[in-house]
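User: Second chain of the day. Same drill as before.
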Amino acid sequence: MGWNRPDKPAIPTVYYTFRAKDADSDQLVTYRVEDLTEDRYDDMIQHYKENFVDDEPFCENRKVSSHEDALEEIVLFWYWCFSQQTTIVCYKEGSDEIVGANLLHVKTPEKEEWPLHSKQISDIVATNEYMTDNCNLFEKFGVDKYLTAYGLAINRRYRGRGIATEMLKARVPMCKAFGLKLTATNFTAPGSQQAAAKAGFITDFEVAYDDFAKMGPKYAFPGINSKSLKLMSLKID
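Assistant: Same format as last time:
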């Protein structure tokens, strides 16, 4: 059956606020993390094209932005993520500029099949699914659903200010709002892995990319700018 967002909390709900440096100075300003609203969907697609697809290790390694079919496929996937109405966005107070975003999704044991066509996206999905298939978080934590994610993207202008860590912290009040007891994600990049650790996530399962390469071409990412893929989780008290 999957999971559908209930009527409450309403959209948009602000889940978290924090203070951090501004984009162009050391001045501390206030940021808020809230639900993505439908009127910003197209803007968010552009945000991910500019701040994710050439930076995230898998997408960069497979040159997703250079393959029209792969780029079209990942854009459709992003819109699908929006449809569950769990994607969150970070704004600076007084501005509508997208500072950061996290494509969130409430995962249940039911298998979600995607009609994949491009080799690039098929390989990325297969590698991520290897992690979740070999580390059953439902059994490990005794839950029937948890909050996962399919991409954290921080605006390049705002990087180096700890915003990724703060956005990951925002999952705690969000999970509590929906009665979820766990959040977990496959973190591909060293920076996101470090941010997750700072936010309290622990590593449940880790596979070195060198070991993935031994499993066949589908799992091989030669020259990838990362050492390992980590499935990391945070229990919600």
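Residues 5 and 236 are 19 Å apart (CA to CA).

User: Great, on to the next one.
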